[in-house]
Amino acid sequence: VRMKEEKFNLEYPLQTKSPNIIWELISTAPGLQKWIADEVMQDGDTLTFTWGQPWTDRDTKSSRILEKEKNRFIKMRWDYHEDEESYWELRIQASEIPGNLVLLSTDYAEPDDIGDLKELWASDLERLHQVSGL
After folding, report:
1. pTM over 0.85
2. Residue 17: how many other CB atoms lie within 10 Å
């Protein structure tokens, strides 16, 4: 029996005032490939994420874009989510520090998996900072 997934958010401060730069990194296959997965391919409104190198065990998951608004947010659903309400979203929003932006990631997981998934997001966001300086 699967437990109901719970929503959680992580807020990541950005070192930029320009949503354009961030938008490329969160809404395009080449941008996402820089910090979320080893390979990201796009076919229409489906993004396919692959982790691992060709000579190792690889993990591939697909995500369908549900909604997006340029320089604001992209909302997707992983193919393995059974719950229609589950999604993941990357949203650019104003920070409490005037003139700065934050990246808000929203995701769903079973309660037992939330800690691990938060750690994964934290390391992805750290990689985003490393590759972009933002």
Report:
1. yes
2. 12
